[in-house]
Amino acid sequence: MGVAGEQVAIGVKNHGAAETFTQSTDSTWALTTVPFTTGPSNTTATVYCYKNAGTGPGFCDNFSIVKLTNPANRVVNGDFETGSRTPWGLSSTVPVSVTASAAHSGSFGLLTGAANSGVQQTISGLQPGTTYVLTGWLRAASAEQIALGVKSFGAAESFHALAGATYGPAAVVFTTGTASTQATVYCYKGAGSAAGACDDLAVTAVG
Ligand SMILES: [Ca+2]
Known about the structure:
CATH class of the largest domain: Mainly Beta
Number of helices: 0
Strand order of the largest sheet: 4-7-12-9-10
Bound molecules: calcium ion
Strand content: 35-45%
CATH architecture of the largest domain: Sandwich
Number of domains: 2
Shape: globular
């Protein structure tokens, strides 16, 4: 957390792959995650909390590193590489498209409408009372926001909004309710005047 409108990032580097970080623009405490994979011969990593330019301090607390022992992705067509939207449903009546211009990985990505639009997918077969991490890459027009989120899993909806015209990573950690085996994940572009994009959505069990 930091001053409203400023950014604090947590990140990881020196682990045998490209440095990666997640920025938070929240002025209240919010959970932020950075999934990473160590290189083939790397056994160490450097993690950090970093406040960039601004007028006030940022705050970080409760760092943890958890190994994902079952990295299977529970999202179907999360990379949109089928070239079609199936099985993603629309978040609103505003049309979206699967197109090369929205690709973060591979040949296709999801391009939202200019506002109030996106896609969602309900994942079934999850374990109740189990923690998962939702990850994805998003971008929006300059100064506009796009969100990666999860709802209908037996606990309060949670999302991670990103602003920025270049693709950046987002992550949401969520724990299914004691009787819930489903979750609906989404990529949603809110108010604005230009399309956003998302790609590479994944849900992975933690631990
Ligand atoms: Ca893709």
